[in-house]
Each structure stands twice: as structure tokens, then as C-alpha cells.
Amino acid sequence: MTAVNTKPAFLTKEQAQEIAKTYPTPFYVYDEKGIRENAEAVKKAFSWNKGFREYFAVKATPNPYLINILREYGAGTDCSSMTELMLSKAMDIKGEEIMFSSNDTPAEEYAYAAKIGAIINLDDITHIDFCEQAVGGKLPETMSCRFNPGGIFQMSNGIMDNPGDSKYGMTREQIAEAFRILMEKGVKHLGIHAFLASNTVTNEYYPQLAGQLFELAVELKKETGADIAFINLSGGVGIPYRPDQVKNDIAVIGEGVRKQYEKILVPAGMDNVAIYTEMGRFMMGPYGALVTKAVHEKHTYKEYIGTDACAVNLMRPAMYGAYHHITVLGKENEPATETYDVTGSLCENNDKFAIDRKLPKIEMGDYLFIHDAGAHGYSMGYNYNGKLKCAEILLQEDGSAKLIRRAETPRDYFATFDGLDIYDKLMKA
Ligand SMILES: *Cc1c(COP(=O)(O)O)cnc(C)c1O
């Protein structure tokens, strides 16, 4: 017999039933209260730094309603594509509140980023000339370069990542050379960016990364005379997908970064460097869930529960074998007596939200709450098997539900066959 569910869902069975009357499952639901409390905690954790700004990684959850909540706490946006830049512009986000941290970047995206005044973060030294041409010959006054130290990035708890294998960023020699060239070309203020480990569930990652980047900043200032305006710690602050993991404490993380700042930057006379972050997962991940209904049970060589969602709605389990906790709404306190594979309907055997998962006995019609899908969830979706993307709903602080993105319809799916009017013909037939 296994323990009862230890990871609370922010939605009750009654709330799910009520929402499903208007917006059928599957749907995404976001917890406004949780988003706000976390955003406030992030702001507070870095309030010691005058220039601090969180640039929310738009790719994690590209929904303007949700991004507007974060903006109330001072957040800007971190973009890596044309449509993400366009979304930021359409939301009236001001130039320097937009970070453009792209890679393998098309010329027209550099041109557009410069036009709307976004801060351009160059992924490679060869992009200096490329970007200069793309923006019409005059680089912006403030720019940033992405650093990759190579090797492995390891923390004391063993969590590590492998920057040496990653396609991003410039080497140590290249970033110094890039700063020199950029200054020659009239760039006045420079930033340093690095993203060296993903989904780190430890309070050590940002402080350790900050220490490394602060030392680099002191060296680069000495070597090149650059005015280093900001250091961008990027994303990578993780969340506990599994119920036995201990969640990060952003106050401890902010304090750890402050200590490094006092130790390294302040003695070097660099006490006006702004700290930027580009968190996605940490800002939204725990505060979004995919709600789906059990529609089939199948008893063959294993026990299967078929849901009305699929990997099109949430791809992480299929793509990375990622764990997403599941709560059977209304059965929070029932013992996990069954072992199920919880599946979607794609013609792909990896379309499973959970494999050999201990859960309470599931009846057809039960609502499954798939946790921690608020970042890199909906946004990773695709249209395989002609499956359509679902609605997104905001559970507001007063408990009411608000539609913040409608579900796709067949008309949307057929809309790109210009001239064939497939949907209209079908409807007339
Ligand atoms: C994906 C990404 C982020 C956000 O990462 P999280 O792990 O969601 O915090 C930030 N910056 C860049 C450049 C990214 O590619």
C-alpha cells in the first residue's frame, strides 16, 4: 500500500466540474493567486539590487493575460523569435523591458528587435557583423553577449549540466574579443548572459553562476575597459516535479547572489551593475495544470487509463520522459492501490502522461489534474494526428474562471490551406 497524495492540487473536483460545463476537458488552468505570490517573492528576493529585472521567458507560457500579471511585479519579457517579439510589442512593453536572447537568429528578427528597442543578446561572435548589417549599419548603444565556459557545470549536490556540449554562447576568448569589437563599433553599455544548467532544484545554482559571471565581469572590464551594465543569470531555476523534492527558496537564492555581488563586484568598484533574470519555469510551472478526463480503461498486459488529452496538450512526458505528478480530483485522500499507465490518444506509444503510476482507483469521468504544466506545457504543443490545442483558463483570485485562450477548432487547423476552404465546404455538405 502506498501513501496518499502528498502534492496538493490548486483546483477542487467541484471547480473542475463547474469549469467543464462551459469549457470541456482537456483544458489548462492557471492559479492567479500562486502566480502573484511567487512573483512578489521573486521581486523581494532581488530588491537589494537597484536595477533588478526579471525578463519572463515568453516561450514558457506565451499568454498575454498571464504575462500582464507578471508585469505588475516589474517583469519584462525574454524573447527568442519574431512572434515573441511581436507579442511583447503588441502588449506595449517598452524597448529595454524586452530582452532578445535568441540563437541561430534570422536577420529580420535582429532588424525587428532593434526597431522596437529590445536589448539584443548575441549568441556568437560572428553575429556581430551579421546583426550590424541586419539593423542597417548602426548597432544599438546597449548590447549583451552570451557566455559559454565549456566543460561541465557541477554543484555540490551533484546536479550538473554540460555547457561544453551545448550550442549556445561564446568562449572566454571570444567574449573578450566581442566586447572589444562592439565597443569599436560604438556600443556603450554591455551585458553578460549565461544559461549553464536547466531545471536546477537547489538554491545553489544562481549564486554559483553569479560568482562565475561576476568574476568574468571584473576580468572583462580590466581587459577591455567595457562598461558592464548588467549581468543576466537567465533561466534554469527549477521546480520540484516530484513530490519528494524540496522546492527552491527564492529568498535564499537572492541572498546567495547578493553575497557574491558584495564579495566580487563591490570591491572592484562595480556596485551599479544590474542583475537580470530570465526565468520561465520558476515563474509559471507550478501554477498551471492540465485537466483531463478519464474516458477509457483497458486491461491487457498492463492496466491503462485513457484520457481525453494527449501529448499535443503536454509533450514533456513523451519528449523527455519527464515526471508530472497526477492527482485524481476528489480522491486526494484515497490510497494509491492501483498501478496505471495513463495515456493519450496519439498513434505513438510514448503518448503516456505516466507509466506504472500508483494512483487511487480511477472511474470513467474522473478528472485528472496533471501538475506543474504551467511552463513549457501548452507552449510546446503541436498538431500531430490533427489533434487540436486546448483552452487556457485563469482561476482568478476570487475563485472564478476566466477564459484566456480559446481551444483550437477544425477551422483553425484547416485555415492555412489558402483557397481550399475545406472547413466551409464540409459545413455546407
Ligand atoms: C528557455 C530559456 C529561458 C527560460 O528557462 P527556464 O528553465 O524556463 O527558466 C531563459 N532564457 C533563455 C535564453 C532560454 O532559452
Please tell me about this protein's structure.
The protein has 429 residues and is an alpha/beta fold. The protein folds into two domains: 13-29 and 286-414, Lyase, Ornithine Decarboxylase, Chain A, domain 1 (Beta Barrel); 32-283, Alpha-Beta Barrel (TIM Barrel). It is 30% helix and 22% strand. It has 13 helices and 19 strands. Helix 2 runs parallel beside helix 9 (250-265), helix 5 crosses helix 6 (127-134) and helix 8 (205-224) packs parallel to helix 9 (250-265). The protein starts with 12 loop residues before the first helix and ends with a helix. The mean pLDDT is 96.
Q: What are the defining features of this structure?
A:
nine-stranded mixed sheet, single chain, TIM Barrel, 2 domains, eight-stranded parallel barrel, 429 residues, Lyase, Ornithine Decarboxylase, Chain A, domain 1, alpha/beta, 13 helices, binds pyridoxal-5'-phosphate, 30% helix
Shape: globular
- CATH class assignment of the largest domain: Alpha Beta
Number of domain units: 2
CATH superfamily membership of the largest domain, which one?
Alanine racemase
Helix content: 25-40%
Termini separation: 56 Å
In CATH, the architecture of the largest domain is Alpha-Beta Barrel
Please state roughly what percent of the residues sit in beta strands, choosing from under 5%, 5-15%, 15-25%, 25-35%, 35-45% or over 45%.
15-25%
CATH topology of the largest domain: TIM Barrel
Tell me the radius of gyration: 23 Å
Question: How many H/I helices?
Answer: 13
**What is the arithmetic mean of pLDDT?**
96
Quick one: how many beta strands?
19
Low-confidence stretches: none
SS-based structural class?
alpha/beta
Bound molecules: pyridoxal-5'-phosphate
